[in-house]
Amino acid sequence: MTAPVISFDDADALLNWAALTDALAKGHTFPKAEIGDTFLYRKPDTLLSRAAWIDGLGQAVKTATVFPENAKHGLPNIHGSVSLFSDETGQLDAMIDFHLVTKWKTAGDSLFAAKQLARPNSNAILLVGAGTVAANMVSAYRSHWPNAEVTVWTRNADKGQSFANAHSVAFEPDLQAAVTRADIICCATMTTEPVINGAWLQPGQHLDLIGAYRPDMREVDDVALQRARLFVDSRDTTLDHIGELKIPLATGAIAPTDVIASFYEPGDFVRRSDEEITIAKNGGGAHLDLMTSRYILDAWSQR
Q1: Is a pLDDT exceeding 90 seen at residue 71?
Q2: Is residue 107 included in any domain, yes or no?
Q3: Distances from the Cα of 33 to the Cαs of 122, 265, 288, in angstroms?
Q4: Which of 294, 297, 230 has the alpha carbon at shortest distance from 261?
Q5: Quick one: how far is CA 263 from the chain centroid?
Q6: DSSP calls for 89-122
Q7: Domain count across the chain
Q8: Of 234, 114, 254, which Cα lies nearest the Cα of 186?
Q9: DSSP state letter for 214
Q10: What is the pTM of this model?
């Protein structure tokens, strides 16, 4: 039997956030994933492959080509696919669109954290950043907090207002004011300098940090990390790899023991009180691509 090729349009409408977070919870009951990344370069282009193997779920290889000059050809900068392989035989189970897996994995990762760490009665959500990830987070958060007021802030006011109009959210030009009013703060930026000042944070808030993925990138300052209880989706993909934690760990602003739990430690991945501040860092490793791809194939097969 030929393995299906699942496009974005084939499967996007078949998926839902609650089912995905259930799949992520189940995925973390299997043995811990083996993961590996490969980068190849031809300036200015990049070929990136991320692989994961989970005993019981199979194997996945997510490959992306990043060609920054594609705009002059009228093409997207990023192309790719995910190859999903059988746990039992190693044969190809499916080829799945890169953008489909990335959308649901990235937003689902932070939604999964927020469902465990944010206060259940959260009614004010702030998006810091107005890109594709922020747009997906509107849908993700609304699936669990349907009555929450969603606000967006971005440095470019015109872009922020356009985003607000497109997604039926409010635009707030004053970041500090927006932060102080929010129950959930989601950062999805490309900044290398922190945009969130820890002194602004209020008791009971939860922060989802998505944007930083390189060793030089941060979205919150040391004070924010020191005031919060810290969580990660995976210790293996965050502590030594992403500036959000790598830099303050190196300077001694925080210690490894300050990171309380990952998704692989569900008993500790909890909020203890309505007053504490929680931060979850989204590292988005290949094991989450594998879990998401398996969920997508299951949903597509049952269509």
Answers
A1: no
A2: no
A3: 33, 14, 9
A4: 230
A5: 13
A6: T--EEEEEEHHHHHHHHHHHHHHHHHHHHS-TT-
A7: 2
A8: 114
A9: S
A10: 0.95
Contact call for residues 6 and 300 (beta carbons, < 8 A) = yes
Residues 134 and 200 both lie in one domain: yes
The verdict on 293 and 264 lying in the same domain is no
Instruction: Determine the residue type at 154.
Output: T
d(CA 142, CA 191): 26
Within-domain flag for 110: no
- What are 178-198's pLDDT values in tens digits? 999 999 999 999 999 999 999
Task: Judge if 68 and 150 occupy the same domain.
Answer: no
Rounded Cα distance, 27 and 33, in Å: 10
Domain that holds residue 53: 5-102+287-301
pLDDT tens-digit map of 131-190: 999 999 999 999 999 999 999 999 999 999 999 999 999 999 999 999 999 999 999 999
Considering just the CA atoms, what is the radius of gyration of the chain in Å? Answer: 19
Can you tell me which residue has the tokens 């993961």? 35
CA torsion 250-251-255-258 (nearest 10°) is -110
Residue 229: beta bridge partners?
278
- 111 belongs to a structural domain: no
Examine the domain organization and report whether 93 and 124 are in the same domain. no
Are 132 and 164 members of one domain? Answer: yes
264 and 159 in a common domain: yes
Q: Say if residues 200 and 251 touch (Cβ distance below 8 Å).
A: no
Specify the pairing of strand 206-209 against strand 278-281.
parallel
**Number of residues that this document lists for the chain:** 303
Strand 229-232 and strand 170-171: pairing? unpaired
